[in-house]
Amino acid sequence: MKKLSIIYVVILTIILLVLSAGVYKFNFTNKDIYNINGTQINTHDATYTINGENVTLKNGISETKSPTDSASKTITRYFGNDLRHDLDGDGTEDVAFLLTQETGGSGVFYYVVALLNTANGPIGSDAVLLGDRIAPQNIVMDEGETIMGTKRQNVIVVNYADRNPGEPMTTKPSLGKSIWLKLDPKTMQFGEVAQNFEGEADISRMTLDTKTWNWVNTVYSDDKNVKPLVENKFTITFNKNGTFSATTDCNSVGGEYIVTKDRQITFSKMMSTLMYCENSQESDFTKMLEQTQSYMFTSKKQMVLLLKYDSGSVIFK
């Protein structure tokens, strides 16, 4: 019996060591959380202004009680979709990202904020409301419009899906929207940048079979950005009879697709030619199609395939 007890102790010790190593690895490798003297710190922690009220995140969350209802709380959380860029031109990397806020009802409100890394420490911005229970996609840098010989700089584009006018909140967001924002480092407020909409697409008229779509990039929820190594090789064409054809950097792919009124889409019965190509991205591309749950269009003439579990967006143009 004594020998068995010793064996149990040894096994339990090994399990605890493995679990401890796993926790350490998580804290060490997660780019948003790190340890200072054993305390977890979220790198997005700062004070932000939401609807005129200061909200201070601690470990990525803030909870405040209502002054009029002790049972009601306002909960603000770090959501993600980080864009890391020097937003104020001082040579250091800043970050723009999304927060969510719940005020006690059924709504979940999404906001865009920025966090500047300055010599005096991190400074949070005013928040810009995107909407209630929207479907966030990504935040990217504007490609830059040249006006009078000067290229526009440090403008971010926030892409998301919302409901069509008149649709109930229970409807899944399917209307692609984008907002262009530029941060004023002096006031820490975002200003919306007016767009020249000449040549913009009418989303209501866009359909899957509008054209042959070229894969531009895929942005995952962990901020991983995957682009085709060879341009214009990855395409997809939708036929009115419910079939599709695609090309990759190696083979041709074909199959069937089914769509519903709320823009849910499923790819099935996919087959491809069997040529072998070294360093091909074909398997990654077909996996994206297999994991697609729905789709949307943007005014930038893009089609976006939305992956299951809000895990990413596959962008075509």
Write up what this structure looks like.
By secondary structure, this protein is mainly β. The protein has 2 helices and 25 strands. The strands form 6 sheets. Strands 17, 18, 19, 20, 21, 22, 23, 24 and 25 form a 9-stranded antiparallel β-sheet that branches. Strands 5, 6, 7, 8, 9 and 10 form a 6-stranded antiparallel β-sheet that branches. A 4-stranded antiparallel β-sheet has the order 11-14-15-16, with no helix packed on it. The longest helix is centred in the first third of the chain and has 28 residues, at 2-29. The protein is globular and about 60 Å long. The relative contact order is 0.09. Residues 14-31, 33-40 and 146-150 have low confidence and may be disordered.
List unreliable stretches of 5+ residues.
14-31, 33-40, 146-150
The general outline is: globular
Instruction: Please indicate the percent range of residues in DSSP E strands (runs of 2 or more).
Output: over 45%
Rg over CA atoms, rounded to whole Å, is 23 Å
Helix content: 10-25%
**N-to-C order of helices and strands:** HEEEEEEEEEEEEEEEEEEEEEEHEEE
Mean pLDDT: 83
In DSSP terms (H or I, runs of 4 or more residues), the helix count works out at: 2
The tally of strands reads 25
